Structures are given as structure tokens and as C-alpha cells.
Amino acid sequence: MKNNSDGIQLNKYISSSGFCSRREADSYIEQARVTINDNVALLGQRVSPGDVVAVDGERIKLKTGKQSVYLAFNKPKGITSTTDPKDRTNIISFINYPKRIFPIGRLDKDSEGLILLTSDGDIVNKILRSGNEHEKEYIVTVNKPITPEFLQRMASGVPILGTKTKPCTVRQDGAKRFRIILTQGLNRQIRRMCEYLEYDVLALKRIRIMNITLSNIPLGKWRALSFTEVENLNQSLAGSLSTEEASEPRSIEPKKESKPKWRKK
Fold first, then answer.
1. Among 84, 108, 122, 200, which one carries the catalytic annotation?
2. If exposure means fewest CB atoms within 10 Å of the residue's CB, which of 69, 70, 137, 161 is most exposed?
3. CA 92, CA 19: separation in Å to the nearest integer?
């Protein structure tokens, strides 16, 4: 089995084809669902020119200069943010878009709101990597009245999943409702933070990712991003590192602090 150090990394090859994100590509590889030249592939393996890559027997082909797709979708509860066809609630089957796309990151099955989908594998890791500090805004309803202590502790960081969450911006939006802006995306982060402080989340909606807002997209519907939105998104990502780039030493200027960009629904 070839493992050419000069080739392209397997998860990047799959992601660049528009099949799925690198994260999901790694999951497929770990499940032994990816082959290179009919041999089961391994994590970290590289693809050389002429190699045939397949997922579940479906051959993966790199894109050839076609225009990328960027969608904003208002995900309902009950839909799973995965491309895996074995999951009957997967987001791709629900949207049924005519071209190959995949979600940028995840939104809990029990949550609703904005999630971006694309065929552009290069943009995904730059948005997802927490070190790039790209904002995501949520509206959260909990089971009991919110206190100043709750807001302060949520904002300063909460111990979950063996780490402490990054400081974030939190604002009360009703007796039992608040808004929160995160720059990281730990698994079920908001729900776990609330649970640690003895609150239960009754409803959770994401209303913004960077410069893209939920705007007036009806629940269960999507819209294509405008040219201006895509341009602004790319400009915001210009100084961001991908996961692969982040593994290499690099001098980065510290980010200037900015006021939270609260957005209307």
C-alpha cells in the first residue's frame, strides 16, 4: 500500500472533493469505510496521483474548477448534522440539494437554527477551528429564572469535558432566556454549561455564524448566500488558520478586542 509523503492527505482529499468535511472524513476512515486502490485506508494516509479513493464503494473525484455552493439553512429539531446516509435523519437527505454539499460544523439534533452547508472543503476548517475565534450567536431558553450569578459564571467559563470553556459574551433576553456568543464549539457546549450550573435547556436556536444571520429563513428552509455574504465571509477568514496550517509554527499577531456584535433575529 502506497503512503507517499508528497501526496495529499486523505481527509483533505475527500473534503476537497465536496463529499464531506475533514472531520467526517476522519470518521469514515476510522470506520474502515474508505479505500485507496481497493485497500482499506488508514488515518493520516496520503493520496498520490492515480490513486482511486472510495467511500462505501463510491469513488471520490476532486472538483475541477466548478463554482462552490454556499447555503444557509434553518435546521429544525430532529435533523442530524451529518452526511451519513445510514442516519435516516441526516441533513443532506432532508435538504435534498441537487449537488454534493456538507454541513460546516454541527448543530445538536435537539437544537434548531442556522447551519451553513457548502461544497467548498477549504473553508470548513477555517470556520470550525476555535483558535480562529469566529463568533456564533445563540438564543437559549432555560427551565428557571436567570440570575446575575448564572450570567457571570456562564460568561467567565465553566468546567466541562475536562476543560474550562473560553470566556464569552452573555446577555439576558427575558426571565428565562439569554443570548450567548461563543468562539468555540465543544460538544453540546451550551447544554453542558447550563447543566453544570443546574439549569436545563428547553430551547436552543443559533441565529448567527460570523457575518451570516438566520434573517428571515423559515424553519426547515434554506437560501443561497449572496455574493456579498460570501465575499465578506472570505475576507473574515483571510487571516485564519486551517487545522493543517495550525500544526506548523507561525507568528500570529494577537487579535484586538472588539465589542460583541449582537444581531437581531
1. 108
2. 161
3. 11
